[in-house]
From TrEMBL:
Keywords annotated in UniProt: ATP-binding, Cell membrane, Membrane, Nucleotide-binding, Repeat, Sugar transport, Translocase, Transport
Organism: Microbacterium foliorum
The keyword Disulfide bond is assigned to this record: no
PROSITE patterns: ABC_TRANSPORTER_1, ABC_TRANSPORTER_2
UniProt cross-references to CDD domains, sorted A to Z: ABC_Carb_Monos_I, ABC_Carb_Monos_II
Protein name as annotated: Rhamnose transport system ATP-binding protein
Pfam family, one: ABC_tran
A Gene Ontology molecular function term of the record: ATP binding
SMART domains: AAA
Domain ABC transporter: 15-251, 263-505
């Protein structure tokens, strides 16, 4: 193990934070943040949501100023008051969702605000393009420097941000949850780029909730908990169990606490659902007390099926029935009345009113039920919201806390609470634990298992194979818009699920 003191004394260092404190009024976001990054190394920073990782990153990026503690860059004390100062000092942050100018080209985005000029003060576009070509060749990526950035994938946008950092000669690159929206191939390309940057002698900080990525990519890992530094360890000297224990302060013995539930009557019946070019002949049943997983690779059509079943998206042929009665197409209100609920994949954009309070979000789908003669009192709304916030253990100081300020895990709990408040018979939940920490994942899994035990039918869409295998009673595997396999819990393995997701021949249980 490497303690904070010894990590500080071992040269050379690219960046060093020691016992950094940051508060926002009475709320202490960072009690004692410590981190040491070294040139030519990829360093993981992990911790549950709310552990203080984002606050530490924002201090490094110049968005926040620390209240106390040490901050050194290449051995020199620094105190950034703006993001421009941080960038000028050689620190670059690659966010999960880059913010580029969509109407400008790749090259123009990379050189925005610092275009080189030639004779008569004109922008030297040839010099810009030549440098971008050289950077892309160094990174081993093929991307057209003249292409307009609108429509580019998140993965390509991240490459543009990395190229911008290289053009600025950044010595420290911070990658904040960069793989959350990437496919497997895109992750592999990003990791190849990260390794090439490490080999050039740059210091890289990698923030992720995915342990497989941390162990695959990183040399060293620092754990934070409750706003404080816990430990720094070489990757080769630790295990997932060790890291989980440090992150949550306890052993998480059951990440997938699946309890046995009596499987009852059919609740949701989907027959022949078809939307040309998106999905074809989709048929399945979800029964009371059953968790059915829709598995498959990104782009297989899983989310599109869920949205069509709930009436958000159209379909051309087929039928959706709840408790034996047909559900009107393209009509989410009718779907809700039939007993369906949908927790979408993108909770911030589709599941929450992000600038509204926790209480208002939880009661959003039941306001008509709570109102009397078209009016609703804050007391009635708060009582309903408090019940569900308490049951789902939403960590918030007050029901009027703005949803945007919550951690990802607590935002997911608020979305779940909103839909569970409608008393659904079938819950469709898309990527239930994406982007949330391991402790909260266990809580969400326990809740889903408990709901199934109470007779709720659950259709779960997940890209995480351990989650699929750990929670599902049945696995439906999709490939290119079709169901290629139906596999029972007892028969499901990583191998046969992946085989069905990548091969066109059907595999039956």
């Amino acid at each position: 193990m490497v303690d904070a003191a010894s990590a500080r004394s071992a040269p050379p260092t690219a960046l060093e934070l020691h016992r950094v404190v940051k508060s926002f009024g009475p709320v202490v976001a960072l009690r004692s943040g410590s981190l040491t990054l070294r040139p030519g190394s990829i360093h993981a920073l992990i911790g549950e949501n709310g552990a203080g990782k984002s606050t530490l990153v924002k201090i490094m990026a110049g968005l926040y100023r620390r209240d106390s503690g040490d901050f050194r860059l290449h051995g020199e004390d620094v105190d950034f008051t703006s993001t421009a100062q941080s960038k000028a000092a050689g620190i670059a942050v690659i966010y999960q969702e880059p913010t580029l100018f969509p109407d400008l080209s790749v090259t123009e985005n990379i050189f925005m605000g610092r275009q080189p000029t030639g004779l008569l003060g004109r922008i030297d576009r040839k010099a810009m393009r030549t440098e971008v070509d050289q950077i892309f060749r160094r990174l081993g990526v093929t991307l057209d420097p003249d292409r307009i950035t609108e429509g580019l994938s998140i993965a390509d946008q991240q490459i543009i941000e990395i190229a911008k950092a290289i053009s600025l000669d950044a010595s420290v690159l911070i990658m904040d949850e960069p793989t959350a929206a990437l496919s497997g191939v895109e992750v592999d390309r990003l990791f190849a780029v990260a390794r090439s940057l490490r080999d050039e002698g740059r210091a890289i900080l990698f923030i992720s909730h995915r342990f497989d990525e941390v162990f695959d990519l990183c040399d060293t890992v620092t754990v934070m908990r409750d706003g404080a530094y816990i430990d720094t360890t070489p990757i080769a000297e630790t295990t997932v169990d060790d890291l989980v224990r440090q992150m949550v302060g306890r052993d998480v013995t059951e990440l997938f606490p699946k309890q046995e539930a009596a499987i009852g009557e059919p609740l949701l019946e989907v027959t022949g659902l078809t939307r040309p070019g998106v999905f074809h002949d989709i048929s399945f049943t979800v029964r009371a007390g059953e968790i059915v997983a829709l598995a498959g690779l990104v782009g297989a059509g899983r989310s599109e099926v869920a949205r069509a079943v709930f009436g958000v998206d159209p379909y051309n042929d087929g039928e959706v029935r709840m408790l034996g009665a047909g559900v009107a197409r393209r009509n989410p209100t009718a779907a809700m009345r039939s007993g369906l609920a949908l927790v979408p994949e993108d909770r911030r954009k589709q599941g929450l009113v992000i600038d509204a309070g926790v209480g208002g979000n939880i009661t959003l789908a039941i306001r008509r039920r709570l109102s009397k003669w078209g009016l609703i009192t804050s007391g009635i709304e708060n009582r309903a919201a408090k019940e569900w916030a308490s049951r789902l253990e939403v960590k918030t100081h007050a029901l009027d806390t703005v949803a945007a300020t919550l951690s990802g895990g607590n935002q997911q709990k608020v979305v779940l609470a909103k839909w569970l408040a409608t008393d659904p018979r079938v819950l469709i939940i898309d990527e239930p634990t994406r982007g949330i920490d391991v402790g909260t994942k266990s809580e969400v899994h326990r809740l889903l298992s408990q709901l199934a035990g109470e007779g709720l039918g659950i259709l779960m869409i997940s890209s995480e194979l351990p989650e699929v295998l750990g929670m599902a009673d049945r696995v439906l595997v999709m490939r290119e818009g079709r169901i290629t396999a139906e596999i029972s819990r007892d028969d499901a393995t990583s191998e046969n699920v992946m085989f069905a997701a990548t091969h066109s021949s059907e595999l039956q249980s």
